[in-house]
Amino acid sequence: MMSCEIINVAVDGPAGAGKSTVSRAAAKAMGYIYVDTGALYRAVGVNALRNEIDTKDRQAVAESLSDISVNLVFENGEQKVLLNGEDVSAEIRTPDASMAASDVSAVPKVRDFLFDLQRNIASKNNCIMDGRDIGTVVLPNAKVKVFLTASPEERAMRRFRELSEKGSTVKYEEVLEDLIKRDYNDSHREVAPLKQADDAALLDTTGMTLEKSVESLIKIIKEKV
Q1: Fewer beta carbons within 10 angstroms: which end of the chain, N or C?
Q2: Whole-angstrom Cα distance, residue 200 to residue 106?
């Protein structure tokens, strides 16, 4: 007998763990909507960069929220990120946007600003939502919670390859340094720090292929649902 219950899957983990890639593929395979919450923070970060706002200046970042709208739209199951109606899906993937996202995500007013949007999407759709605090803060009652991680070196190498393929001349050592710095920032911030929820399954993808990682996530979801 089919259940009408809405299934929410919360996937948390550090930067570069492959949460987006793995969650997107698993959602597609299961017919769920994929929600990349990190993209929302990146959009707020991009807005700050465009307007030459210091992303570490919490008051300035908080004040900038009154002039922006951030939305997710889904076309053929693919997520697009709109900043004031403009599709910024490509712009939010730069290294500068990553660091800006880490800064603005530590601002309580930014988290409040995006909180309702995330919860609203989850309340209406079977979805896999990934981020840093989905299982601990945004969707504490999610049916399935997963903490997806990999070693810092492996995560840095994945990110380095991804950036190199896009034509970036960044060095691996710089990517690793940025990633370790972001890990520290994300796990030590006062508001909703990155941590594994008590009831989350741990999925360490170090040494796994993408296919194996996706397969492992789907297996966890199916066992819980």
Answers
A1: N
A2: 23
Buried b (16+ CB within 10 A) or exposed e, 79-92: bebebeeeebbebb
CB atoms within 10 A of CB 204: 16
* pLDDT tens for the 225 residues of the chain, in order: 345 789 999 999 998 899 999 999 999 999 999 998 989 999 999 999 999 999 999 999 999 999 999 988 888 767 899 999 999 999 998 889 989 998 999 999 999 999 988 999 999 999 999 998 999 999 999 999 999 999 999 999 999 998 899 888 889 999 999 999 989 998 998 888 899 999 999 999 999 999 999 999 999 999 998
